[in-house]
Amino acid sequence: MQKYAEKGITTVHYESGETFSIESVPRRDIVAGVNKLNADIIIEQCKALVTNLVYVDQHLGARTRNEYMKHNYEAHADWQGKVHMIEGSNERFPNLRS
What are the tens digits of pLDDT across the range 45-67? Predict the structure, then answer.
């Protein structure tokens, strides 16, 4: 405990083996929480407007798939810039959550 009292906690170690700085963990969690809340509000607004189709915008720098990616790394470019269905799916429009 003396070591922590002198140096402080500098990193967070997860069971997955990943390590992050103590500053980045709360920021990442807050940003992710705000983004999820915003997305949930938009979905509820779409339901209130009785629409089932949504356009997912796209931006430069979206993560893409390549041979250097970690297996759990989500590629955002795969589903951006397309129309998705909130409920269900068909040949033309994939399901938003999938």
Answer: 999 999 999 988 877 766 666 66
DSSP SS3 for 84: strand
Phi/psi at 7 (5° precision): -100, -30
Tell me if 53 sits within 8 A of 85, measured CB to CB.
yes
Q: Which residues contact 63 (CB under 8 A, 6 or more apart)?
A: 73, 74, 75, 76, 77
Q: Whose structure tokens read 């269905």? A: 85
**pLDDT band with cut points at 50, 70 and 90 for residue 71:** low
pTM score of the predicted model: 0.64
**Cα–Cα dist 46/93, whole Å:** 16
**Burial class of 5 by CB neighbour count within 10 A (0 to 12, 13 to 18, 19+):** exposed
Q: Give the pLDDT confidence score for residue 53 in this predicted structure.
A: 93
